[in-house]
Structures are given as structure tokens and as C-alpha cells.
């Protein structure tokens, strides 16, 4: 949290929910309540060589640390900017001969930072890191065994002079990470690439229908001098108007689940019972399991078939057999037609996968049809300013644009832009990319309309037109 916006919030006792944050003033839609650089953050093990360890951007070619040969960076400027955070990790990796798991690396980075700060909260922190909530005493037997393994690995990996920590304290640190770790996405917002700890963000409580969203801003690292860089940071933005004294909330899980499933996930991962309005009143559960209009017979058979098909689809995706994925999706969608509503979770999941696979196979016309139906269902379920909804509409708009359905694609891209301006703001890389697409589709639409006035089509629908090569090249770059 920057010193300039710490005054925007105040810490309070939220009763059964523990501590929480309230707004110290009134906020308009899309305002930044506070921004906070990561206290510690690491790239996932599986993406360690594909994502910059400083700004968390995905890059085709990365510069490798010549000492530990594990950390990768966009360039020398990112490496220099991250050296203070990496230097002790670098020595530990060289000493142990290999990098440990992401959870151990994050715990070690957190401990090194605590040592550097003498365990004290900075002026921008509302509480110190080791005062954050943890639920080690509520872990399952399997989770406890994993915790014990991680503690032993960290003790071997740890190197800070003669200073050693007790098993209890290290377990406490791992517990804090498990309960408060925040997933970080790449610069396009499309893939989870790492995990970080943000102490002030950890104080914001959950609601399945929140009034804020937390988005990673990767900062600006284009300047040659690292002194001119802006750090990666979380921005907490309002999804609507917020009154002074109102509690700030974000959602810890995707809303697109039945209330019982959201409650189960929250209980298993964060160890609390969600009693928000949408869970206690089971709001939208009926839509998520609804039958199609005019469908009177039971839908259990088709629902069971869909669930089984989704398991097969996921297996085929993991195997890389996309032709089989597509066959299963088409079969399932045919079975669902006229039986499951357009808001049914199984139908939406199949439509999402089908649109993704069809686009990758460049079958854009069919992909556009799936994407359109998927978005229609999403808009009936999600909060109108939900970031995931905005990203889904953006992808659908791009798919329709690529399919030559320029007018409808442009409309969806504009809709996505209005949502992401609220959730991400005008300076986020996702929003800037979307602004370029919005401008290009608008220009293409004008050209298409001008050509139509001069040369009226002969019973040709706009969906049969194709985007020009420049548009497709632009999309491939995105």
C-alpha cells in the first residue's frame, strides 16, 4: 500500500470473520482503493523458465541468472531490479544444488524479507506479516505430512548466517502462505504464473458477490534504468459505489459454482464457513442447474452424461488429444441441446472448452457460435463488473472478430473494454491491448459499412465475411 492511499482504509474487528478493512471515504466505481507491492512472490515451478521472476510477464526468450541458473528475467534491467530480492535465494540454490518447490521458495523469501525488516511492519503495512491468520491446527493429516516435508526442506535450504528458526515458527510461516497467498497472472491475465503475499490485501475479507476486485498490475519496466521502474503491485478496485464505513470485500473463489461447492472450497482452502447473502440464500443456484425452457422431463440423465463427458474431456486435454476433446464436446453439446438451460454449469463448461479448442484449430465460425452462447450464459450469472466476465467477453469478441463477424465482435470487445476499465483501469496491459483491438475493429467496421453502401451484398450475411490478413496477424500477436 502506498503512503498516499493508506488513509483510504481502516482496520476493524469483523467479529467471526476476524479482522477486516472498511472504506475511510466514499468511492466511485472503478477507483483504486489501495495499491500494494508484493511482500514476497515467486514464479510457479512449472513456469520457472518461461516467466520473468521480476515482473511476472511471460516472454519467449528470457535472460538466465548466470550464478544459480534458475531465475529468469526479461532483460538485465529486470534482473538488476530484482537482485535485492533474489541474491540470498541465488546463494541458497547454488549451495543446495537445485531450487526447491515454489512453496519453500516463497517461505524462504518471506523469512529473508522479515530478517531485513527486523520483523517490523513498514509504514505502508497495517500489520506485520507474521501477525496474519494461519490455520495450521486445522490442516488434514495429508496436509500436515506435506507441511512437515516442506519444513525439513526449508531447514536444509535456509542460509542466513547461524540464525535458525524453530519448526513451530516455520510451520507458522507456511500456514500464513497457505491462507493468504494470492495467485498472480501473466500480463494478459490469461494464465496463473505465480503466487505472492500481500499483507494488506490479506486483511480484505471474502464475499461471493464482492464490492471490490484485486488485480495484479505488472508495473512499468520499459525504462533502461531500473530506478524509473514501477513495481509489480496489487490494485484493489471498486466494482461499484462504496460508502464511507462500508466493509471492503473481494472474492477468493470463482462465483461460477453452486453455493455449496463454493462453501466447500472456501472451507478446505481458507478454513471458514461462508455465510454471505449469495451462499445463505443460494442465489443463482437454480439458474446454474436449470432445465431449458419448455423442458418438463427430468434432466438428471443429461446432467450425469455431461459430468462424465467433462471428466473424459479433461483427460483428453491433459493427453493433448484435441481432436478427441472436440468430438466429446460436440457429442455432449448435442445431448444437452433443448434439455439444459444456457446458464447450466455443465453446458457453460463444455461451451468454454469447445470455443477454446475450436479457436486453436482455426475453426472460427463454430468457435464463435460456442463463444456467443457461453457469454450469454455468463452475463446472466456473473456480477456485471466481474473481471472474469470481462476477460471471457473479450475472448469471445476476438473469436467473433476472427470469424469475420466484425459487428458483433466489435460490440463484445466494447463491452469487455467497459468492464475491464473498471476492474483493471486504463493503464493495465490487458486494457491497453483491448483498446488497440477496439480501435481496429471500429475501423474495419466502418470500412465494411462503406463497402456495403457502394457494393450492396447479394444475400450475404456479415458472418460469412472474413477479417483481412492484417487483423489476423494482429490477433496472433495478441
Automatic annotation (TrEMBL):
One GO biological process term: methylation
Lineage, top ranks: Eukaryota, Metazoa, Chordata, Craniata, Vertebrata
EC class name: transferase
Enzymatic reactions: L-lysyl(4)-[histone H3] + 3 S-adenosyl-L-methionine = N(6),N(6),N(6)-trimethyl-L-lysyl(4)-[histone H3] + 3 S-adenosyl-L-homocysteine + 3 H(+)
Domain of life, per lineage: Eukaryota
MYND-type domain residues: 52-90
Keywords recorded for this protein, A-Z: Metal-binding, Methyltransferase, S-adenosyl-L-methionine, Transferase, Zinc, Zinc-finger
PROSITE patterns the UniProt entry points to: SET, ZF_MYND_1, ZF_MYND_2
GO molecular function per UniProt: histone H3K4 trimethyltransferase activity; zinc ion binding
Domain SET intervals: 7-253
Protein name: [histone H3]-lysine(4) N-trimethyltransferase
GO (cellular component) term, any one: nucleus
EC number from the UniProt entry: 2.1.1.354
PANTHER family with a match to the protein in the record: HISTONE-LYSINE N-METHYLTRANSFERASE SMYD, HISTONE-LYSINE N-METHYLTRANSFERASE SMYD1
Pfam families reported for this sequence: SET, zf-MYND
Source organism per UniProt: Oryzias latipes (Japanese rice fish)
